[in-house]
Design goal:
Blueprint: H1 2-11, E1 17-19, E2 23-28, E3 31-36, E4 44-54, H2 60-73, E5 77-82, E6 85-93, H3 100-128, H4 135-161
Antiparallel strand pairs: 1-2, 2-3, 3-4, 4-6, 5-6
Amino acid sequence: MKEKILEALDSLGFKLEEEENLGYSFNYEGLNLLFMYSEDDTNFLNIALPGIYEANDGNVLQVCALMEKINSTLKYVKAYLFGGSVWIFYERELFGDEDLPLVISRMVLRLESSAQFARKTIAEIEEAMPNGSSDEESGDAVEETVEEETAVEKSDDDNNNE
């Protein structure tokens, strides 16, 4: 199956470079994509968009918010933390009778639109939670909001009981 996938990628005009222990990288519209192949599951087609957002101790909340937004909003793709950054994956089972150039081209287009969505989402998240604020400060703000909501609910209960 690997050879068929590589042939399909080649027929689509992608120039493949073998990446040690990862698979084959190729470019589309300025994106560096990665076809990841596993000998353990030859019917598993996995194309990734590596490193869309770096993770560090100061942006854990932003990373979690980005991954949650991608995973809950977009179809067919998944975001994972891998090697210190967020990656987007499109994974698919192959059955042997697919039109691989068509399947792969759609996967690549979906990843490209996911990258656009991620860029927009990152900007929104960073505006809402600037990198200058630590996770601890953000957590304090969430805690204060919960305390305020609890106080309001308690006040409402008191008023309803009168």
